[in-house]
Amino acid sequence: MNFNMLLMSLLPKQASTGAAESDFAFWVVFWICVFFGLIIIPATIYFAIRYRKKGKPGLTNGPTHSTFLEFFWTAVPTLMIFFIFVIGFVGFMDFYVAPSDAEEIRVTGRQWSWTFSYANGSVEYSELTVPIGRPIKLVMSSEDVIHSVYIPVFRVKMDTVPNRYSSLWFEATEIGSYDLYCTEYCGDAHSRMVTKVNVVSEEDYQKFLKDNQGEKSGEQLYTLRGCVACHSLDGSPKIGPSWKGIYGTERPLANGSSVIADDNYIKQSIIDPNSQVVKGYPAAMPAYVDMPEEEINAIIDFMKELK
Amino acid sequence: MSTEKNYLNHPKGLLSWLITVDHKRIAILYTIVVLFFFFVGGVYASLIRLELAFPNTMIDGGTPALGGATVAETEGMYFDDKTYNKIFTMHGIVMVFLVIIPATPAILGNFLLPILLGAKDVAFPRLNLASWYVYMLGAGVALTSLIAGGVDTGWTFYTPFSTLSKSVEVAGIQFSPVIAITLGAFILGFSSIFTGINFIVTIHKMRPPGMTWFKLPLFLWGMYATSLIQVLATPVLGVTLGLLILEKVTGAGIFDPALGGDPILFQHFFWFYSHPAVYIMILPAFAVISEMVAVHSHRNIFGYKLIGFSSVAIALLGSLVWGHHMFVSGQSEWLGAIFSFLTFFIGIPSGIKVFNWLATMYKGEIKLNTSMFYVIAFLINFAIGGLTGIFLGTLVIDINLHDTYFVVAHFHYVMMGSGLFAFFGGMHHWWPKIFGKMYNEIVGILGCLVIFVGFNITFLSQFYLGLQGMPRRYHDYSGFGPEEIFSRFHGFSSVGTLIMAIGFVIIALNWLHSLFAGKKAPSNPWGGLTLEWATTSPPPTHNFHKDPEYIHGPYDYDKILPENIAQKPADKE
Asked: How far is CA B183 from CA B197, B237, B245, B400, in A?
């Protein structure tokens, strides 16, 4: 690997128009820092060796000040920071002012999953799918605590705040599947609040919208509503109990009593989950007060199948 | 061996230590507890690096499940998610509030400040002792949160996550660990304020005749600037944490949006203190380095006034840049722009200091002893820590790097690589004065080199992880991203931590050896010209056997030989 490739590998690949602009600023600052670092660090070591003296110290006569030098190393960094500020500011404005023709996709964060809704809410999906070559604006909010959307290959990041909308935009330039992280600490499964950004052709995007319209199955809702973060399907306990084979069984509760996991119990556990917590698990589940009847039914049907 | 009375051996008895108002003894009391908490914080750090040393095993061959979550097996991990989150939270809280903030001011500051002024004690000796007891109370209250299972909010206590955390029943009482730890931090704030007030008043009122502001040792300029921040900014933390507790107890809607509050307001309040707090951590380091570089280069400090003024400039500017922690929080873009602009100005006084220290080494007579190695390690670490701050201050770059390991590496370079390296350097520099014993220089240098190498392996790896997009505060890094890079560089980082731990053991052994078997220290082992070197090692209870004459500047290495420190020319043979 040659030197240039080594340098380039410092940053992940660029997959949006903004990534190039962000990286331009990065490399400007990088070389300025290398320049100053190559003055300060070798000079420190050189002086320590060059002026080393053993034995009893005598009187020393080095300069105690130099107006020119001190003006010089005040003025040069001052000019430099104006320059860097302007580069950073221009890029920042480009990152936050979305083009007027940008397509809006709504993003909802919750502990610990994402929902992306398209075309006025008629399509919802747990991964972000976007078309290549046109601007996309994410309008984001959170249902509980603060989260943050971070897509490294686009160099974009923005917090999602409850009761408030924030936004970011990008224009993808390369088809592929990339990572999207939550980068604001949000509790237990913070490091699992990771999903994908799928950059697809316009054709595939329209197909995606068409395929995902209409009612969701329980299995789709399992990931879409974020159940997956805490409940496994294979019997292993996570933050909450696994769904495998629990339908119809007797569940021991934290308060010492027990309950049969029937339709009523499951519904109760979705809209007011902490009223009947199973023994050995924390009362950590958010309440899905507004979940529509059809979705609850679909989830119950899905759980019945998990023998 | 020596029967000479000094502050360490007279008066005797545990009680005489617990009710002492002697600033030197209070410094020793602080040393014991701060080093203990440094050990505790270091254990937490080691546990974090142990957990992150290897990626976790996953069910289903590690395919991320649809919806972003992955099904993790607890096998192959040392801790579950919640425990890991508590560990990094405690690491941050212990290191920030219990170690770095008090370390240099409360230990070296307390010990040196009156002696550098030729005074017998600080202006308010009882307040000084009270600050230690308040510190112990705050630490105690904060640690009760561990009984209730610990805190997993991160040291920043961001709302609404922190206000939503639940109480735990301990022995029949509802107990909220978050309230316990915020109350602890609230109380610790008073300890910090007490020390700050004491230092400001002492520097103003107790300077000896002839010691004008521009003849103060630079250590005192640094302490003065630090104290200003402690007194002015700490109350804001108190108010913020007070409001947080109020909201948790009464449900008043201040920060929680579900109650009509504003979570971003909390971030503003929090960083309004906690960014200046970064300067509470770094200005004392500047103070220590200014002394050490002059003494061990035997050179009149270069650009005295600019170093002094730049400390005060950093203290003032440092109070105007808190919003740079919030560029992607949803605050207005214009606020972000203004905070970015002001942030860059901090770079100027910081740069001035570095260049002036370098110029002080130029044409000096440098002794390459332990203290000087710490100075060199500090200058390198601070150069890296400072320069990487420029990336984060640049708006468009920060959008990408915010809340990644790049930030983690950057602030560890400043707080640990600079702040704590200067503290440990200062401990070596003044060790003979404080304890009256010399330590082994070779072992001292070895300890410095080992922690320096370990530190750089640990955190240079983290810069790269951050550039590759690795988010901070992640318990698990398998199943996404450039997995191989993440696991390899997390591995390097953990190896670095192990090396650092070995270095700290070397330092501890060297100190213990010195305490029990070290040679007796002369009054002026390094040939310094500030007043602490004009008294015996260790000093007597009232610091000087006879009042020192203040007849030369602190750095007159071009006029005064060390053996003539604080003597009138007529006193010379």
From this structure: 22, 11, 8, 35
Domain's final residue, options A214, A247, A274: A214
Per-residue model confidence (pLDDT) at position B1: 45
- Residues on chain B touching A33 (C-beta within 8 angstroms): 387-388, 390-391
Taking the CA atoms of B133, B138, B143 and B144 in sequence, report the sign of the dihedral they define. positive
- Binding-face residues of A in 233-272 toward B, CB within 8 A: 234, 236, 238-239
Which secondary-structure segment (H or E) carries B296? helix B263-297
- CA-wise closest residue to B101 among B187, B228, B230, B242: B230
Asked if residue B121 lies in contact with residue B18, where contact means CB atoms within 8 angstroms, the answer is no
What local confidence, expressed as pLDDT, does residue B171 receive?
Answer: 67
Nearest CA in chain B to A23: B397
Residue B488 has pLDDT above 70, yes or no: yes
Of A136, A70, A275, give the one whose Cα is nearest residue B360.
A70
Tokens 């339709």: give the residue: A263
Is the predicted pLDDT of residue B568 greater than 70, yes or no? Answer: no
Sign of CA dihedral A43, A46, A50, A53: positive
Structure confidence at residue B172 as a pLDDT band (50, 70, 90): low
| pLDDT at position B19 over 50 | yes
Q: What token pair was written down for B381?
A: 């670490």
* pLDDT confidence band for A273 (50 / 70 / 90): confident
Task: Return the half-sphere exposure (C-beta side, CA atoms, 13 A cut-off) of residue A63.
Answer: 12
Would you call the peptide bond into B471 cis, given omega within 30 degrees of 0 as the criterion?
no
Please, which pLDDT band fits residue B70 given cuts at 50, 70 and 90? very low
Q: Which ipTM did the prediction report?
A: 0.88
- Give, as one character, the DSSP assignment of residue A244: T
**Per-residue pLDDT for A133 more than 80?**
yes
Per DSSP, helices labelled H in chain A are 3-8, 17-50, 67-96, 202-211, 218-224, 263-271, 293-305
How many residues are given for chain A? 307
- Residue ending a domain, choose from A214, A248, A271: A214
Q: Rounded to whole angstroms, how far apart are CA atoms B221 and B530?
A: 14
Rounded CA separation B536/B556 (Å)? 21
**What is the average per-residue pLDDT within B201-218?**
91
B2 occurs within a structural domain: no
Are B387 and A37 within 8 A, CB to CB? yes
- Clarify whether residues A35 and A183 are in a common domain: yes
> Residue A278 is part of a domain; what is its CATH number?
1.10.760.10
pLDDT above 70: residue B56? no
Helices B304-317 and B333-361 pack at an angle, to 10 degrees, of 160
Q: What is chain B's alpha carbon radius of gyration, rounded to the nearest angstrom?
A: 24
Instruction: Give the nearest chain A residue to B63 (CA atoms).
Output: A195
- Out of A58-62, B270-274, B334-338, pick the least confident: A58-62
Reply yes or no on whether the pLDDT at B73 is more than 80. no
Q: A259 and A160, same structural domain?
A: no
Counted residue by residue, chain B has a size of 573
What's the one-letter identity of residue A241? P
Taken in order B449, B454, B455, B459, the sign of the CA dihedral is positive
Provide the residue range defining the domain that includes B152.
14-62+70-571
Instruction: Give the domain extent around A112.
Output: 10-44+66-214
A99, A180: one domain: yes
- From CA B35, how far away is CA B31, in angstroms rounded? 6
Residue at B366: amino acid letter: I
Question: CA of A231, closest CA in chain B: separation in Å?
Answer: 9
d(CA A288, CA A272): 7
User: Could you identify the residue written with the tokens 């069984």?
Assistant: A249
Q: Which of residues 26-85 of A touch B (CB under 8 A)?
A: 26, 29-30, 32-33, 36-37, 40-41, 43-45, 47-48, 51-54, 56-66, 69-70, 73-74, 77-78, 81-82, 84-85
